[in-house]
Amino acid sequence: MRIVLALGGNALTGVNESVSEEHQIAAVEAAATQVAELVAHGHQVLLSHGNGPQVGDILARNDTTAHSLSPIPLDWCVANTQGSMGFILLNALDGALNERGLDISPTVVVSRTVVEPDDPAFSAPTKPIGRHVDVETAERLIRHGQTWVDDGKAGWRRVVPSPRPLRIIEAPAISALLDAGFLVVSGGGGGIPVVEQSAGHYVGVEAVIDKDLNSVLLANQISADALVLATNVDNAWLDWGTDDARAIGEVDVRTMRQYQADGQFPAGSMGPKVDAVCSFVESTGGRGIITRLEKITNAVAGNAGTIVTP
Asked: Helix 21-40 to helix 74-99 angle, to the nearest 10 degrees?
C-alpha cells in the first residue's frame, strides 16, 4: 500500500519535549525503526511530521534576542525545521533501512502548502505557539507586528492564524519519487504556508497549518491507500476516563462520525485526529488509522489500533 504516516513533533523529542541534539536524534532513530519495518513489508511510505517543539525552540531564541535582532518569520521557521528535522530523519532512516538489507533511499522534499490570502483565520489569530513570556518581552515582539495574548498567571503567549490548507505544491514531485521507489519525508509542520499572489508566484505568510489536515490533503493528492496518525495511545477510546472506557478497533466511518457527534473525542486531544482520518476515508475510500508508533505495522495489517473504514 501507499501510506502517509504522520508523526507528531512530540514523538521526535526527548523527555519533557527536549529538543537537544542528542534527544532529537535518539527519538528519530526509534521512529525510523518503525518506518523501516513498514517498508520491509513492501509498503510505499511518505513520512510527514509535526514540528511544534522545534519551532518553539526557534521562537524562544527570537524572544531572547528581540531587543537586537529581527525575529525569524514563522514561515521561515517551518522551512528551517523541515530542513533540520529532515536531515536527522535521513540519517536515521538510512541506518534503519540498511540494517534490514533494504536497498531503498530516503529523501526529503521541502514542501509548501497554499492557503487563501483572505482566509478568516488571518483576521482572527487563535493558534497558540511557543512558550509563555513576561509582558515586557511580549510588548517588544508586538512592536515587531506579532499578536500576543495575556494567558493569566502563565504569562503572555503568541497566537497566529491557522488557515485551511488548499493544495500542496510539491505533491506531484512527491508522488513521482514514491513511484520511483524512494521513501519520502515531506509535509513537515503542516507545510510552509504560502499564498499565490498571481499565477505561479508564491510568497510565505505568518501562519501555522494544522499538520493533521495537511496530512489528509497530502494523502489525497498522492492517492494514498492509508493515512496513519501515530500518537501516544494504542487506540481511540469511547467513554475515556470512566469505568466504561473501551478501545475502538475497526469501525466504519459513519459510526465513527456518530461517536464524534456524541462528543466522544475532545477538541483538545483526540478530536482533530478522528476528524482527519474520517475526512480521509470519506474523500478517498481508503483506510484511516490511529495508533501508537510502535504498533503501526500491526495496525496497517489490521491487527492493532483504531482502523476507520468506508
From this structure: 60
Question: CB-based burial of residue 126 (10 Å sphere; 0-12 exposed, 13-18 middle, 19+ buried)?
Answer: exposed
Known catalytic membership, residue 232: no
Among 59, 60, 106, 64, which residue's Cα sits nearest to residue 78?
A: 59
Q: Is 295 a catalytic residue?
A: no
Residue type, position 280, single letter: F
pLDDT tens by residue, 58-68: 988 887 887 78
Cβ atoms within 10 Å of 292's Cβ, excluding its own = 18
Is 9 catalytic? The answer is yes
* pLDDT tens digits along 126-143: 999 888 889 998 898 898
Which candidate in 127, 204, 295, 298 is catalytic?
Answer: 127
Q: Which of 51, 130, 188, 211 is catalytic?
A: 211
Among residues 191, 214, 273, 288, which one is catalytic?
273
Which of 233, 232, 236 lies closest to 248, judged by CA? 236
Q: Annotate 229-257 with DSSP letters as a single string.
A: EEESSSS-EESTTSTT-EE--EEEHHHHH
pLDDT at 113 > cutoff 90: yes
**What's the pLDDT tens digit per position in 261-272?**
999 998 878 998
Q: pLDDT value at position 6?
A: 94
